[in-house]
Amino acid sequence: MTWLANVDPLFIHGTTGVVILIVIIKVIVGFAALMGAVTLMIWFERKAISDMQSRIGPQRWGPFGILQTLADGIKLFFKEDLIPAEADRFVFKLAPYLALVPALITFSIVPIGGTLTIGGHQVMLQIANPPMGILVMLAMSGISVYGVMLAGWASGSKYPLLSSVRASASMISYEAALGITIVTIVLVTGSLSTHDIVTSQAHGIWHWNVIRLGVVPFVIFWMAITAELGRPPFDVVESDSELVGGFNTEYSALRFALFYLAEFMNTITMSAIIVTLFFGGPAGWIPPVAHLKWVFPIIWFVLKTVFFCFCYIWFRAALPRFRYDQVMDLGWKRLIPLSLGWMLIVAGFLVAPAWGLVLTAAVLMASLVLTRAFDLGSKRESGADSILPTIGQRPLPGQVLRSWSEHEEDE
Amino acid sequence: MSSPLSFFGGFKLTFQHLTRPRVTVSYPDQKRPKQPRQHGRHVLNRYEDGMEKCIGCELCAGACPVNCIYVRGLDNPPDHPVSPGERYGYVYEINYLRCIHCDLCVEACPTQAITESKMFEFSFTNRADAIYTKAELVVDDHGFPKHLPWEDWREGEAEMTGGWMRATSPSGDAEYEGVVQWTGDLGVGVRAPEAGQSENRDDEATGSKQLRRAFFKHLQPEDVNADQAGLQGKLNEARAKMPKRFRKNEQ
Fold it and tell me: Greater confidence, A177 or A237?
């Protein structure tokens, strides 16, 4: 059990009953806080987006309509739960939980405060601090896409199926950029644990990863995580103008509510992950108030997270949706090479400045080659040599776009 | 125009909207004032002596593009006439499932018997209730439309019946000035001309004052009241929002 004590100081005195109680309390409090935050987030999103569109938004339930989510939840709870005749019944029922559970688990690795000493036990304000740390987040975002994918597939309907194909494709495209950016952070920190990542940024604003690594990894991470969440402007998964409602078209009642919940829970969690990785988590100025010093890191953490939640809403209000092929383009052609190059530069500078300069030059050369390659590729795409005829050009009777016999003669 | 910063134009605009006034109102609790010539539920008017204006000529039924009006005339009983003329509207029915509130009936009416109020919020639970008869349409003994229990009447909607007719008659001349050509109504008398008809506007009398106050931002600059225009208007607006005890200088 020594590895447990190395990871979490709570287990130094062994796994006693009190320790187990503390862990259970942490889990319950974390779960309740996340659930409460989700209801507030849904209300906040609806209210903020309506403000940005000069509307009023929810206002009937509670002060400023703050209980609207509760009312919606109660309504969805009592609605009829429909399962389409064509659906794969077991997978159809399973999918919402595959979406919800990873969303809940991801939050457990987020440090929301410092360390608290209760009766000789050192309690980290973080549900779990596993040694693989941030990899849990990557794994869970990988699993949560199964929820979306299986939901679309099991519905036995065409638009949800298209949506699930999109979901898995965009997950694959952006997971790489996401992972490489996280590697950059892990290189600087020297540890995978989120607790260590946060403590390494605790010594002031210049130590925050967003500044320490240059702003580029943060921007890449933010874009990739927005695409992972399927939030605007990357909401090709549930683009209502193209795919009706996306993967959850056939869902109703409580199962739909679970998807809805998971989506907003992910938004909060990913905002929290951004704050943890790039903005020092709970780091911030602590006023000299006796006995209350543990409160201020939590307040800092919440403020930063709320800011990023607001940014997601702002994106939704300000940006039009990307086309599906543009999403793929951005992921594969821009973000993956850029994050890879930046990671190499950071790694080089960590070894020695000379290596850093050499790698910078190499990355610049590589980017030139890539730019040229993309340029050639885009020209080839629309040329006469392209494999598929351009849309709009259909061979009329007697007209041949491309003669196959010519090619055969060449060989 | 196409500078790299123009990417953030959308962000700037949406952020500015956070502080802008809302364009929507919370409808059932709060209602926008209605346009002075809004077409709502019909009324059948009466003369100042209580006689009905309708003469049963069926011109409204003829003009109606959706055939929602059904009229049958009858000779006036000599001992107790209903209308001053030879005949009166014995049956008068409007089917509100069909009516499109085009006001062609108002235009067709030779005696200004049928006009429209501004009340549009009424609903039915069966088809028979959608047919309004004389019992519902004819104004009461004080000259006001009957407020039926399922109708949501708001203040000012009953007083402003026939705004459209008064605005365009006679002969649709909006520049008309002088003596009005329409007849008086029971309980109201001869109504004032609608605003916009001449320079001598009497917004108070026609009920469009309320509207001008609410929508002055939509008006032409010369139509805005003096106490609402420019910096003085902003001052007045702020003063109106202040608690009463700070407003000493007002009457």
Answer: A177
**Distances from the Cα of A168 to the Cαs of A105, A158, A165, A335, in angstroms?**
20, 16, 5, 17
Categorize the per-residue pLDDT at B66 as very low, low, confident or very high, splitting at 50, 70 and 90: very high
Going along chain B from its start, the domains and CATH numbers come out as 33-200 (3.30.70.3270), 215-251 (no CATH)
- Per-residue pLDDT of A347-392, as tens digits, reads 888 888 888 899 899 999 998 999 888 888 777 655 555 555 555 5
Give the model's pLDDT for residue A310. 92
**Report field, pTM of the whole predicted structure over 0.90:** no
CA A206 to each of CA A193, A200, A213: distance values in angstroms, whole numbers, following the listed order: 21, 11, 10
CA A353 to chain centre: 33
Mind listing the pLDDT tens digit for each residue in A295-337? 888 888 899 999 999 999 999 888 888 888 888 888 888 889 9
Enumerate the β-bridge partners of residue A406: none
Dist CA A129 CA A283 (whole Å)? 17
Find the farthest-apart pair of alpha carbons in chain B and give their distance in angstroms, rounded: 87
Taking the mean position of all CA atoms in its chain, how far away is CA A337?
19
List the one residue out of A322, A318, A336, A316 whose CA is nearest residue A166. A322
Nearest C-alpha neighbor of A275 from the set A328, A232, A311, A318: A311
Taking the CA of residue B152 and the nearest CA in chain A, the distance in Å comes to 21
| ipTM for the complex shown | 0.71
A319 contacts chain B (CB < 8 A): yes
- The CA-atom distances, in angstroms, between A86 and each of A145, A246, B102, B155 are 22, 17, 49, 56
Residue A320 CB neighbours (<10 A): 8
- What are A262's two structure tokens? 């998971």
Find chain A residues with C-beta within 8 A of B25's C-beta. Answer: 56
Distance of alpha carbon A266 from alpha carbon A156, whole angstroms: 26
Answer whether B17 sits within 8 Å of A56, measured CB to CB.
no
- pLDDT of res. B98: 92
8-state DSSP, A334? I
> Is the Cα dihedral A106, A108, A114, A115 positive or negative?
negative
Residues forming a β-bridge with B89: B73
A56 touching chain B per CB within 8 A: yes
Give the rounded percent of residues in chain A with a pLDDT score beyond 90.
13
